[in-house]
Amino acid sequence: MKQDKRLEVEYMTLDELLKREFEKGVKQGLEQVRKQIDREIAKNLLDVLDDEQIAKATGVEIEEVRQLRHLTVND
User: Is pTM beyond 0.85 here?
Assistant: First the structure.
């Protein structure tokens, strides 16, 4: 009986761990998607706003906005 209870506790712990890691992975994936969307929005604003305004509006770092502008100009 003790063995069964111990296995049940270990299984629950493993199940909880898997759930936690899955949720962590989902959150990381969503964050990556959000950053990609922010970069795409920043690209779309390059013709309309200056770099500082784009960074402020999108949350994209100013250096990344400058890199996006540089890449767009050189395309």
Answer: no
